[in-house]
């Protein structure tokens, strides 16, 4: 459950996090996530450990361009928390991506830098992104987790997803599959507010 969710175009806010599109300038923060072995361990082989700034910059450039060209709700977001500097600190990443052999399913995925684990930020970001997906016409969302990825499994359950078993439909290995329909997503106490896109971020 989250307190509120505001959707301004592709910027999504809750009480504690703001999801906004990745920028070319997020290299250092993105490396604290995707350059962390504790995160990359669970993403491989789909995404390998990012070991240097040049590789991270290339990946960010792809994500920025892909997201700008994508049809909502498809996209990739930086998960930020308020900072004294005002722009927000990037603590994680989240994505809504086509998924499955024919790309017919919609996957919700998230990652946090390890220093930000255990605070409920991924749960809050996951709720917010699910509200965004349904506001854009998604019918159902799927998440996958490798066996023994306890944090990913708990995250899916906290967002209200239902475990629907293991499948090798999505990767070369068996993955735990979770499914969410809109009826199973908690409405924030303060509702979901949809506003026109923000400018000047
Ligand atoms: C999956 C991942 C994002 C989950 O991160 P997480 O920090 O465990 O999840 P949350 O941010 O929702 O935090 C939940 C924890 O914070 C605690 N918490 C503290 N304050 C909280 C609050 N206000 N609200 C909710 N939970 C809170 C919860 O009790 C829970 O504790 P637990 O770890 O003892 O169960 C993170 O482990 C990760 O990046 N893993 C590697 C990548 C990955 O596997 N991604 C998933 C597949 S794409």
Please explain how this structure is put together:
The chain is of the alpha+beta class and 201 residues long. The chain contains 5 helices and 10 strands. 28% of the residues lie in helices and 30% in strands. The strands form 2 sheets. A 7-stranded mixed beta sheet has the order 6-5-4-3-2-1-10, sandwiched between helices. Strands 7-9-8 form a 3-stranded antiparallel beta sheet, with helices on one face. The model has no long low-confidence stretch (mean pLDDT 94). The structure holds coenzyme A. The site of coenzyme A (COA) has 21 residues, from helix 2, strand 6, helix 4 and helix 5. Coenzyme A is lined by residues 39, 42-43, 109-112, 117-123, 145, 149, 151-152, 154-155, 158.
Give a nutshell description of this structure:
This protein has helices at residues 27-34, 37-43, 53-69, 121-135, 150-158; strands at residues 5-8, 11-13, 18-21, 75-81, 89-99, 105-112, 140-145, 162-167, 175-181, 192-195. It has 201 residues and is α+β, with helices and mostly antiparallel strands.
Task: Give a topology summary.
Blueprint: E1 5-8, E2 11-13, E3 18-21, H1 27-34, H2 37-43, H3 53-69, E4 75-81, E5 89-99, E6 105-112, H4 121-135, E7 140-145, H5 150-158, E8 162-167, E9 175-181, E10 192-195
Helix pairs in contact: 1-3
The structure holds coenzyme A (COA).
Coenzyme A is lined by residues 39, 42-43, 109-112, 117-123, 145, 149, 151-152, 154-155, 158.
């Amino acid at each position: 459950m989250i307190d509120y969710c505001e959707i301004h175009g592709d910027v999504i806010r809750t009480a504690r996090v703001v999801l906004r599109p990745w920028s070319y300038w997020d290299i250092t923060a993105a490396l604290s996530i995707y350059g962390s072995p504790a995160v990359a361990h669970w993403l491989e082989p789909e995404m390998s450990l990012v070991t240097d700034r040049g590789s991270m910059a290339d990946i960010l450039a792809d994500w920025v361009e892909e997201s700008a060209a994508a049809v909502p709700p498809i996209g990739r977001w930086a998960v930020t928390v308020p900072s004294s500097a005002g722009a927000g600190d990037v603590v994680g990443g989240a994505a809504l991506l086509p998924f499955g052999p024919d790309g017919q399913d919609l996957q919700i995925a998230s990652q946090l830098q390890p220093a930000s684990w255990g605070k409920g930020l991924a749960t809050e970001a996951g709720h917010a992104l699910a509200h965004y997906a349904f506001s854009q016409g998604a019918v159902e969302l799927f998440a996958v987790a490798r066996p023994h990825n306890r944090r990913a499994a708990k995250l899916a359950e906290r967002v209200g997803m239902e475990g629907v078993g293991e499948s090798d439909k999505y990767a070369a290995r068996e993955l735990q599959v979770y499914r969410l329909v809109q009826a199973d997503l908690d409405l924030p106490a303060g509702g979901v507010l949809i506003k026109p896109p923000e400018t000047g971020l």
